[in-house]
């Protein structure tokens, strides 16, 4: 049932009409998807994930991305992989349930409607996680959705 509340589509961040990356999020993580240029050996790509900063690029060149993150991440469980021409960066949220408006601080922010939809989806994911016998995939909120990180005492830690 949790799959029903997974991100349905990726958000796209573009600059000068070119896609920079796509991204989505769950309660626990933010995933970034960066298209790799063709004909570059995989061993030349690199990624450096710090608590509040991300750098990715091709060795010997200026970084493709070199920006502060929108919120802190757990570096011991954040990582990047290369697969099928895409660099997939998995950022483990330090604050589980926090709704990110973008992975990169101050850039490509979701509009208020999309941010509200993300917060509602994460709130339903939280309900699903806390009540695994129920199906929240068709649930709806009337009015403003509470913050999934802090609602009713916050998210329980394991």
Automatic annotation (TrEMBL):
PROSITE patterns: CS. It comes from the Eukaryota. CDD domains: p23_NUDC_like. GO terms for molecular function: unfolded protein binding. It holds the Pfam family CS. InterPro entries: CS_dom, HSP20-like_chaperone, NudC_fam. Gene3D superfamilies: 2.60.40.790. GO terms for biological process: protein folding. Signal peptide: none annotated. This is CS domain-containing protein. It comes from Dioscorea zingiberensis.
């Amino acid at each position: 049932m949790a799959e029903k509340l997974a991100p349905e589509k990726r958000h796209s961040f573009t600059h000068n009409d070119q896609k920079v990356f796509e991204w989505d999020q769950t309660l626990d993580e933010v995933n970034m998807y960066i298209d790799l240029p063709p004909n570059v050996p995989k061993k030349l790509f690199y990624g450096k994930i710090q608590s509040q900063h991300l750098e990715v690029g091709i060795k010997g060149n200026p970084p493709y991305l070199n920006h502060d993150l929108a919120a802190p991440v757990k570096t011991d469980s954040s990582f990047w992989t290369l697969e099928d021409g895409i660099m997939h960066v998995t950022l483990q949220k330090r604050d589980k349930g926090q709704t990110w408006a973008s992975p990169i601080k101050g850039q490509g922010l979701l509009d208020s409607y999309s941010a509200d939809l993300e917060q509602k989806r994460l709130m339903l994911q939280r309900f699903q996680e806390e009540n695994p016998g129920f199906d929240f995939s068709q649930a709806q909120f009337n009015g403003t959705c509470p913050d999934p990180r802090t609602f009713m005492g916050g998210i329980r830690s394991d």
